[in-house]
What we know:
By secondary structure, chain A is mainly α. Chain A has helices at 14-25, 30-50, 69-76, 78-109, 116-128, 131-142, 149-156, 164-167, 169-195, 198-206, 211-239, 243-248, 260-269, 274-303, and strands at 53-54, 64-65. Chain A is built from 14 helices and two strands. Chain A has a two-stranded antiparallel sheet. In chain A, helix 5 packs across helix 9. By secondary structure, chain B is α+β, with helices and mostly antiparallel strands. Chain B folds into two domains: 4-229, Rossmann fold, CATH 3.40.50.300; 238-332, CATH 2.40.50.140. Chain B has helices at 42-50, 92-102, 107-120, 136-148, 166-183, 194-200, 218-223, 228-233, 245-248; strands spanning 4-13, 16-26, 31-35, 57-62, 65-66, 77-80, 154-158, 186-191, 203-208, 211-216, 240-243, 254-257, 262-265, 271-280, 284-291, 295-302, 312-317, 323-325, 331-332. In chain B, the strands form four sheets. A six-stranded mixed β-sheet of chain B has the order 6-7-8-3-9-10, sandwiched between helices. In chain B, strands 13-17-14-15-16 form a five-stranded antiparallel β-sheet, with no helix packed on it. In chain B, strands 2-1-4-5 form a four-stranded antiparallel β-sheet, covered by helices on one side. The longest helix of chain B has 18 residues, at 166-183. The longest helix of chain C has 31 residues, at 12-42. Chain C folds into two domains: 2-74, no CATH class; 79-288, MetI-like fold. In chain C, helix 7 (186-194) runs antiparallel to helix 8 and helix 9 runs antiparallel to helix 12. By secondary structure, chain C is mainly α. Chain C is globular. The interface between A and C is large, with 109 and 104 residues.
Amino acid sequence: MTSEANPALFGRIPILGRFGLWIWRNPLIAPALLVVIVVTQAPFILTVIYSLFRWNLQRPENTAFNAFGNYVDIVRDTRFLDSIVTSLTFTVGAVLLSLLVGLIYALLVHDRFFGRGIVRTLLITPFLIMPIIGALAWKYTVLSPIFGVVNWIVRQFGAAPIDWIGMYPVASVVAVLVWRWAPFMMIIILAGLQALDDDQREAARMDGAGPLGEIRFVVLPHLKKYLQLSALLGSIFIVNEFDVIFMLTQGGPGTATTNVPFLIYQSVFYSFDIGHAAAMAVVTVLGTIIIVTYLLKLLGSLMGDLD
Amino acid sequence: MGSITISKVTKHFGALEVIPPLDLHIEEGEFVVFVGPSGCGKTTLLRLIAGLEDVTSGSVAIDGTDVTQVAAARRGLAMVFQSYALYPHMTVRENIGFPLRMAGIGKAEIARKVETVAETLNLTGHLDARPGQMSGGQRQRVAIGRAIVREPKAFLFDEPLSNLDASLRVNMRLEISELHQRLQTTAIYVTHDQVEAMTMATKIVVLRSGIIEQVGSPMELYNQPRNLFVAGFIGSPKMNFITGEKAAQHDAATIGVRPEHIALSKDAGAWQGAVGIVEHLGSDTFLHVNVSGAGPLTVRVAGELAVNFGDTVFVTPDANRIHRFDAAGNALPRRN
Amino acid sequence: MVFWQRRTAATRGIERASMIRTVLAWAVALFVSFPFLYLATSGFKTEVEAPKMPPAFVPVPESLSGFPLAYTPTLENYKLILAGDFMPYFINSAIATLVSTLIVLLLATPAAYALTLPQTTGKRNVLFFLISTRFLPAVGVIIPIFLATRFLGLLDNVLALIILYTAMNLPIAVWMMRSFFQDLPADVLDAGRMDGAGTIQELILIALPMIKNGVLATAFLAIIFAWNEFLLALTLTTTKAATVPLYMISFMSAQGLWYAKMSAAGTLAALPVVILGWFGQKWLVRGLSMGAVK
C-alpha cells in the first residue's frame, strides 16, 4: 500500500490507471476507442487463450488445457504450412501483378482523352463489385469450361475446351485477384501522378531527358512512396482474402487454393476444432504484424508528425 | 480600458525556447506594432496574449487582471488573421454575428449591431454573400467587422495585409489607421514589414529571437536605434554600416549612416568613390557607391540624377546623423 | 502510355500516339469490364439465351431477334427474383449497412476531431492502435466472435452485424475524417476559439460544415465495405438476418445454375454499391489510403 491516496479508479494497476485517466479526459475519443477495443481486441485475447486448449465443439467433454500442444500440432500439420505457402503465393503474385497492371491503367488514363471519365469508371468497377459476385462472374462467364467466353474463343481455334479453374486453380485465383485489386492500385497511383508537379517534368525535359528518362528520373522516383503504400495496403488485404476463394474454388481442388484464412474457416466451421484454429489464427496475426509494422511506418511518414 | 501587461512570459515548444523571459507594457489606446524578421517570435507573442497558446511561465494581465489562465474567448480580445479566417459556410452577416451569437446575445440585438458594423465598413450590400464570392479586400473588411462588433478591449492583428496586393495593402493600411483613430481601442499589430510598422504604430516593438531589441515610437527607432539590429531593420533602404579606420575616427567599432543622410557631389566631398549600380525610382535615385576604405555605400538622392556606372563621385555623411556602435553592436551616445 | 507528352501535343506524331492511347485505353476498359457487363446483360436474357455463345451484347426488339450478338431483353428474371425471397436479404443488408454507417459517423466524428486538437495527448498511439486493428486478419478474431455471438443469442440477428460492421469501419472512418479535419485552415478554428466557441460548438458550427464532403466520402466508404462484407455474414447469420451475399450463395445451392436468374440476382446485389462508388470515385483514394493520399 502506498501512503499516497490514489484517485484513479484502477489505481492499483498503473497501466490501467493511466489508460482509465486518459479515457476519462478524452470523452470525444473514448466511445469509438472502446467499441474497437471491445469488438476486436478482447476477442483476440480470447483467441490466444483458446489456442492453449484442446477444444472441439463436437466433443466438448474432451476440452482440456493443452499448453502449446496446438502450436506443435499445426507446425507438424503440413496443411497449415501448405496454406501459408498458398497465402504467400497469392499475395506476392497478386500484389506484384496488380501493381504492374494498376500502373499501366494509371498511365493510360492519367491524361485527358475522349471518354476518360467512362474508362476510369469502368476500370475501378471490379473493385466496387461485391467480391463474391465478381468471382461468380469470372467462374461462370469467363472461365467456365462449358459456358465461359475464354473456352468459346479456344474452340474457335479448334482446340479442346479447358477447365481453367480445375487445371490452373492458383492462376485462376490470381487472375481474379489481379482483376479486383489492380483498380485499387490504379486509384492510389493516379493520385500520385496528380500530385506530381508538372514543372518538374518540364524541367527534366529542358535538361534533356527524353520521355523514358523523364519516367525513370522524375515520375518513378516520385511515385515510389505511392507504389510502396499501394503494395503494403494491397498485401494486407490480399493476405486475408477469403471471399474470392470461397466462391471460385472452395479452397480446392484438394487443397491447391486453401490459404490460411480459408483453412481456419474450415477448421472452425467444418471440423469445429477451436483450439487448433485459434492457434493458426494467432500465428497468422503475428505474421501479419510484420507487414503492418512496415505499413504503419510508411503511413506515419506520409502523414508527417502526428503529435 | 485595454492596457496589457506581460510579465516574465516565456514560451517553449518542446525543448525549443521561442520566447525567453519577456516583459512588456501596452497602454490603453496605443497602436503597438510587433516587428521583426520571420521566426522572431512576434506571432507567438501575439498568440500568447490572445490565449491561443499557453504561456510556459509568466503572466499576462489585461486592465490589471491576470488572464493567464483565462480562455481566449473570455479575454475580451478580438483577432484579425493573416488568412482572414472567415467561416466559409456562413454569410457575411453570420460571420460578423458569430462572436455575439457565442456570447448568447439576442437575435435582434445581433442584427442591429451587425448592420451598424457593416455600414461603417461599407459592407451593407454584401451581408448575404459568402466569403468565397468576395475579393481579398472585402474579406479583410469582414474579418475586421467580426472583430469590432464585439467591442473588444483590444484588437490583435496577425499580419493582416500580407495576403493583399501592393496597392490594396496601402488602402487597407490607411483604413486600419483611420479605424484606430476613430475607435481609440488598443491595437497590437504583427508584421514583418517595417514600412507598416513605421506608418501605423504609435509604439514599435522590435523583436529578434524572442527578445525585445527596442521599444519606442517610430521616430525614436529611426533616430536613436539602440543597436545594429534595430538600426539595420528600421529604414529603407537599409542603413550603411562602416567598420575599420573610418569608424575608428569616430571612436567606434562601427558607424552607421542612412542613405538619405549622405550628400553627393561630383566635385568635392569627404570620401571619394566609384558609382556602381544606379536605381532610378523617379522620385528618388539610389546609388551604390564603392568607397575605398568603407566598402559599398547606398546613397539616396531626391529626384533624378544623371550619373553613370563607373563615374567618380564624392560623398559626405551628415556629421549630425552618424550613428556609433561599439564592438558588441550597441549604440554609443552621440558626440557633440 | 504517352501522358508525358501532353504539353507538346501540337505535333502530328503525338496526335497519332494519343489516338492509339485512346483506343488502347478503351480496349483495356472493355476487356476488364467484360465479366460484369456480361453478367449485367445476361440478367435480361431468357434462360435459353443466356448461356449461348458467342455472347450476345446488343439488346434489340423481338422483331430483330436472331441476328448475331443480338438478344431480346426481358425483365422476367428480375420480376421472379423480386417476387421471390430476395427482398428480405436486401433489407437485412440495407439495415446492417446504413445503421452501422450512421453509428460509425456518430462515433468517428468527435473522435477524429479530438485527434486533431493540440491538447490531446497520445494521438499517435490511438491512431496507430485503431488502424492496426483494421489491418489484422479477421480470422484472428472470428472464433471468439462466433462463440460470443452464440453465447449472447445474437446469431442470425442483424444487431450482431451492425456491431461488427461498426467496429470494422470505425478505424478507417476516424483516419479519414481526421485527414479532412486536419486540412482545415488552423486560423479559422482559432478564430472560432477567439469568438467564444467551445470544442463541441467549434466542431458542430465550424469544422463539420466545412468538411461536409468528407463526411459524405466517409459514409460512402463505410457503406461500400459493409455492403460487400461476406465472411462475418456467412459466419453469424443463416436465414433471418442473412444479407445479400448470402442470398447469392443460397440461390446457387438451392436453385442450381440458372444463368439468367443468377445474373439478374448478382446484378441487383452488386449494383447499389457500384453506383455509389461511381459517384464517390474522387473520394475513394483518400479512404483507401487512410487519408494519407489526397
